[in-house]
Structure formats: C-alpha cells, structure tokens
Amino acid sequence: MKNVVGVDIGNSTTEASAATIGSDAAVRFLGAALAPTTGVKGTPRNVDGVAEVVDRALRAAGVAIADLDTVLLNEATPVISGMAMETITETIITESTMIGHDPRTPGGRGLGVGTTVPYASLDDPAALSAQHPAEPVIVVVPKGVDFEVAAAAINTATRRGIVVAAAILGNDDAVLVVNRLDTTIPVIDEVSRIDAVPLGMLAAVEVAGPGQSIRTLSNAYGLATIFELDAAATKVVSPVARALTGNRSAVVVRTPAGDVADRTIPAGSLELHGESRSASVDVSRGAVEIMAAVERVSPLADVNGESGTNTGGMIANVRQSMADLSDHAVTDVHIKDLLAVDTFVPQEVRGGVAGEVALENAVALAAMVRTRESGMQAVATAVTERLRAAGADRVEVVVGGVEAEMAVLGALTTPGTDKPLVVLDLGGGSTDAAVIAADDSIDAVHLAGAGDLVTKLIDAELGLDNLELAEDIKRFPLGKAESFFHVRLENGTVQFFEKPLPATAFARVVTLDGAGMNPIPGRHSMERIRMVRRTAKERIFVVNALRALRAVAPGGDLRQIGFVVLLGGCALDFEIPDQIADALAPYGIVCGTGNVRGTEGPRNAVASGLVAAYAAKVASGGV
Ligand code: ADP
Ligand code: MG
C-alpha cells in the first residue's frame, strides 16, 4: 500500500488530494486541501503553498507525514496571463462650460432656465433689471454664504419682482435653502469651483423628483429647444445630453465659445500575426471586431501594438510584465491568445468645474503567453527537500501528467458524465478547455481572460479602485440595508437581523458574504452594480466558453459536443455556470458544474486525476 498526494499548482490556487493506493492498485481518496499559490506558477517559490496543502491533506486523511510515499505534481501548462486597460474616448469641456454636475442632494425640483447672475447682484435690483429686464435669472451663490442668508436674499428678490428660476450653490446645502424659499425652484449644490461658473450666460438647471431622473437636459432636442440651437449645434451638444442620462439633477451653461467635445483618442491598432495569416485592427472599432480578427487569423503567433499609441503602450506593458514574471527576455514573449472586452470607466471630465464625471469608452485586453518550459523539475526538487525536512523521510516527488489530461480524468469522476466530454476550467488568469473524444484522444486550448479580469472590470466600471471589494462584489449577491434590522436582497426578498446592522451599512448597497456586510461606496444603485457584475461575467466567460468550444469541437461544430463540465474557482460562482449553460443550451449540450469524485465540486480535478493516472500506472506495472 502506498500513501500518495496529488498536487495541482494553479496560477491562483494550489490543490491537493491525498489517497492510498492498495496492492491491487485500488485508489481510496482520503482527504483534500487547497491554499493560495505562492509565487508564480512553475517557480520554486511554489514550495510554500505545496507544503501547506500536502500537510493539510495528510491531516484530513489521518496519515502521518513520515508515512508519505509519493507526491505527484502536474506538468503545469507553461502559460501565464496578463491584462491591461485603456480609455479610448475622453470628454473635454472648453471655456469652463459646466455640464452634468449631479450632486448627492440637489434641492427643489423642476426645470429653470435663465441668465446666470452673481449672488451679490440680488441686492442691487437696479443693476439687475438694467442688465436683464424682466428676464429670469439663475443665481450663482459662492461658498461661505449661509443658507438662511441665501434663502432670504432669494425671497426678497422674488418679492421685488425678479424671476429667480434656479440657483447654483458652492456649499452643500441645497435642501436647506429650498426649505426656506417661498417658491419651489431647482437648486444644485456642491459646485467646487463655483467661481469658474460663467456669468451673464444662458443656463438651465433641472432637478427631478425623488427616484426619477431628468428628462429635458438629457434629451438633445430638449437642449436645442432651451438654447435655440440649429441642427449643426444640436449635433455638437448631443454628447452633453448623453452624459447626463440617468442623473437626478444637472446644469448646463451655454457659453459662446464653450464646447463639450466627445473626442476619440487615437487608440492605435493591433497587429495580429497568425501562424498563416495576419490582420490589423483599429482598437477603437471595439471588442467585437477585434475578436473577429483574432478568430480569422487564429492560431495566433504574436500580437503587436502600433507604436506611439495607447495600444502600443498597452501591449508593451503586458509584454514587459510577463517577461518580468516569467524571467524571459521581452523579445522571447509571444502572445498566443488575446481577449478584448469593451468597457466604460468613469473619468473626471477635463475642464469641468465641479468634478463632473463622464463614462468613457475603454477597452480591456487580456493576453496569454507561452513560456519556455514549466520549470516543474526545480519545483519538485524544492518540494522534496522541504518535505524531507518536515519528516517525510522516504517521500519521492514525481512530475508527470499533462494538466489538461489530468483535468479530464478528474472531471470524468463527476457522476453522470461520459465521453466525448469537454472540460472548461474557469480559473483566475485563463480559461482552459480540454476535450476527450470517444477514442480517448485529448486536445486542449488555453484562452486569455478569466476571473481576475471580471474583478478588474467591476473595479474599473464602478470606479472603486479597490480590488478586494470588487472581488467581493463578484462573488456575493447584493443587498440594501433599509433599516437597522433588515436588508433587502437583490432578488427582492428581505433578511432580518437580531442585532442592529453596523451604522456604516445603513441605507447603502452592501455585499453579503454570509459573515458580514461590506458597504459599497459611491452612488451606484443596486440595479446598476448588479448589471455591471453580470455583464462583466458574460463578456468574459460566455465569450470564452464559446471561443473554447469552437476551438476544440470536432470541425468547430458545437453540436458534436455532448457534455461540458465546468471546473475551477469560477465554476463556484453563483451565476457564471448558469450564464454559460444558458448560452450553450441552443446547441443541445449538457452543461453543469463538475462534482469531482462525487464530493469535491468543481475543485480538485487535476489533483484527483494525477492520483488516478498514477494508480493506473501502478496497475500496469509501470511503477
Ligand atoms: P487557477 O486554476 O488559475 O489557480 P482557480 O481555479 O483557483 O485558479 O480560480 C481562481 C478564480 O476563481 C479567481 O478569479 C477567484 O476570484 C475565483 N473564485 C474562487 N473561489 C470562488 C467562489 N467561491 N466564488 C466565485 N469565484 C471564486
Ligand atoms: Mg486550475
């Protein structure tokens, strides 16, 4: 009888499966463990993670380390992945035109159109009426003016016959001002550079009722009506309208030379070199065209970006970081797969006066690089030394078993599966597919883009700048703390708590990880966060699942595939497996999350496969 542990070192996770192999070569699995991978996969720093999972798997199995005979390491696929993101449009405001400011707490409601006048002129009705006889005005109130004073000044002016149509405040007290006014007007506050708001110009302020969004300023023809624009001018301001869509409040000032431009940054092109064909595609054409070009020239041999452009810089960065990781010269790094994803990122508008933010188009790229060799032998030597030192006196460490083949062997232990079968391993950096045909032949592909890119998209699209929180948003459903004792979950149901919720969570959208709740900063609604989360998953995993299956299916025909088994960390996700299954249903494919050995779920396939393959070798007298 032999005590063995199969170990799978992944980019993110190291998994182990402990078993005994009897004299009749029968395998009994006894315990499993997993831990984060230490260091870059395939390098000696992996030894810490390996030692930890071996130790824990043996404990779970009730086997003493001194009785350990063999550790089986996979011949890790020498691929690593990298990613980059670049915005390809920018909104620029010239001459301090203010657009789109949407403070947290605007006051009043309605649409006010008038000429912007300084607060001080309210006290000087002569000057005001000389300048703008009987015309409505929009008062611009600088920071530091007390809300009671400002409200009283507006009321006095109104009584004198001045039509105050709206107000723009530097302070954050629109609601306090509105509560003290005789008439309801729309009021915008928190304009940080209030002194930069142009005066004597026609402007419009719109505030929608609670729970509603503005209707006029977010409509290009609404703007045209207010500012009497002709067709050409309407075309110019249409980006303004688009930028304001969905806001509860907005202000637009029309200045004679001022302009809001929606500029496409010359993003540059990608040169895709296939093994037999090449293509060049402009990145600003978007992900669909880029991916069509990738598919046309596949298999990819390498990718370059146009030098001197954002795309050039992006590809150079990916190449450099992967060269550093894998200890290769930059010239030895060849990009073998590329996934492009369209995304939107909130960016502060250049030239804005109140920290206005516009959603800019961006493209995210994930790239896959094949490294020279896996370096597993060096890892094996390091693991042997470490385990011997820990008391495993007679352990030998064996490298063997191609990752894809082992994954298939492990996946086939899922109840209800049969050949031909495709394994989709949804990992952190890559989506790996392996197919086993009825005649047992195995084929595999490694595609760029997986769980880490989903996290990165969520982080960028919500403007979080916090990958840990983005990871939480990816993994857990949302809720909204509606009172101190209950949370409304995203599916509409309510969860009650006996102890009061933390004050930081109150009235916020939170992630619910089962243990606690993490409030999500910013003003995103639950619906929007949910949409960002779900579309990020779809744009990566549904796209990659289809790409992978087209690559491994006989003749590229998805109908030839009977079973798809999902494995890897992202197969544990609460919605990715359903999204993939929905996309594959039209092809008559049975698709589900793996349950390795009927107990391990989508985890441990490679580790279990290593043990099974070793036992088969023992049985055939190969060991
Ligand atoms: P690898 O094989 O590359 O080491 P894994 O199979 O461990 O990678 O997958 C890592 C990915 O799985 C990460 O993107 C991580 O966010 C995701 N992941 C891990 N656990 C879960 C979970 N419980 N729910 C959703 N995603 C998960
Ligand atoms: Mg893996």
Give an account of the 3D structure.
With 623 residues, the protein is an alpha+beta fold. Among the domains are: 1-76 and 375-413 and 602-622, ATPase, nucleotide binding domain (Nucleotidyltransferase, domain 5); 81-88 and 265-370, Ribosomal Protein L22, Chain A, CATH 3.90.470.30; 95-261, Swiveling domain of dehydratase reactivase alpha subunit (Glucose Oxidase, domain 1). 30% of the residues lie in helices and 30% in strands. The strands form 7 sheets. A 6-stranded mixed sheet has the order 10-9-8-7-11-12. A 5-stranded mixed sheet has the order 3-2-1-4-19, sandwiched between helices. Strands 22-21-20-28-29 form a 5-stranded mixed sheet, with helices on both faces. It is elongated, with a radius of gyration of 31 Å. The two termini are 13 Å apart. The relative contact order is 0.13. The site of magnesium ion has 4 residues, from loops. Adenosine-5'-diphosphate is lined by residues 10-13, 37, 427-429, 451-452, 471, 475, 568-570, 572-573. InterPro entries: ATPase_NBD (IPR043129), DDR_dom (IPR030994), DDR_swiveling (IPR040916), DDRA (IPR009191), DDRA_swiveling_dom_sf (IPR028975), NA-bd_OB-fold (IPR012340). Residues 281-614 form the Diol dehydratase reactivase ATPase-like domain. This is Diol dehydratase reactivase subunit alpha. Residues 93-260 form the DD-reactivating factor swiveling domain.
